[in-house]
Amino acid sequence: MSHEALNPIHPSALPHLDPVFVRLYNEHVANTPAGPIDLSILRTKYSVLYSYGTGPAPACARIYDSQVPGHKGDLIPIRVYEPASPGPWPVHVDFHGGGWGLGDLDTEAHICKHICVKADVCVIDVDYRLVPEHAFPIGIQDSFAALQHIHAKGAEQFKIDPTRISLGGVSAGGNIALVCAHLARDAQIPLRLVAVGTPTIDDISKYQSASEAPWPSMQDMEHAPTLNWARLKWFDNLKWQSIAADGPTMETQMAAVKWYASALQAPDFTQLSKTIIYTAGCDPLRDEGEAYARKLIEGGNEVIQKRFAGVPHPFMHMDEYLWQAREFIDLTAEHIKTTLHQR
Residue 213: pLDDT band by 50, 70, 90 thresholds? Predict the structure, then answer.
C-alpha cells in the first residue's frame, strides 16, 4: 500500500469519519492515483495539500519575513504577523507541521493569520531546517534557538513583550512546541501557554507494524485517510536516515537526540506552562497525544485536552467546511488571547 493514502477511504476508517469530511475527500482527493512521490515534489505541494478545504483568513495589519539565529547561530527564516493594535504585543510562536521533512512558512499561514487577529497578538512562524538534509533533531534545535532569540531580543526587534509568550504548532510542530516547553523551563524562559494540535509524541521506530504499537488508535486508524501507518513510517524513516550511519558523527548526533525521540521520556514533567492539546478521533497519533496530556497532569500542570471526533490528522486545515477545524482555530485563539492578555 502506498503511504500517500490518496486512494478511496479504507472501509475500516469510513464509519468513524464525519460525512462532511468524507464528501470533501471523495470530491477532491480520493480519485488521485496513489504511488511513490519524490520528496522534492512532495515539498512543492505540501503547503497546498489541503487547500481544497481551507477557508479565507482575516487580514493582519502587517506581514513580513525576517530571520533569526537557529542552531549554532545559523540564520533561519521566520514570518511575522502583526495585529492592528499598538505594541508591544504578546507573542505566539508557531512551529509548522510536516513530519520533520516537509513544510514551510506557507503551511500554517491561515492559522497564523486567525490567531494574530482573533487573539490580538504578534505571531512569529519559525521555518526550522528539515531532515534528511539536516540531522534530526534539527527542528527542535533550530526552534528552541529561535525562541531564545525572540525572548532575549524580541522587544527590540519585533516590538513584542517577552514576558507574554505562547507556543504552538501542529503535528511535528506540536511536538516541537511541547519539547521546547521543557527546554524553556530549564532555561528560565517564561512561557504563559503551549497550545498544540495532533502532536507526534512516540518513537515509532520501535515498532515494525501498527499491531506492535501500544496505542489502540494506531491499529484502529492504521488505514486512516491523510495520515496512515505506512506514511507515518515513511516520515519516521526519513527522520532517522538523516543521522549518519556510523562513526563519531553518528555518536554526536545520537547524543543530541536525547529524549526527543519520544516526548513521553522527558525526565521532568513538573512546573511546565499551561498546556492545551487537541487530538483528532481518526488520527493514528490520537492516543499518544492524549497519553502525553495525562503525563502533564500527573506532573501537576494545568492541562486542557480535547478530542475532535470524526476528523483525521490535518483537519484544522479544512476550516471552510469542517466545524471541527473552525472550533480548533477559534478555541486556540481564544485561549491565547485570554492567557497572554492577562497582566
Answer: very high
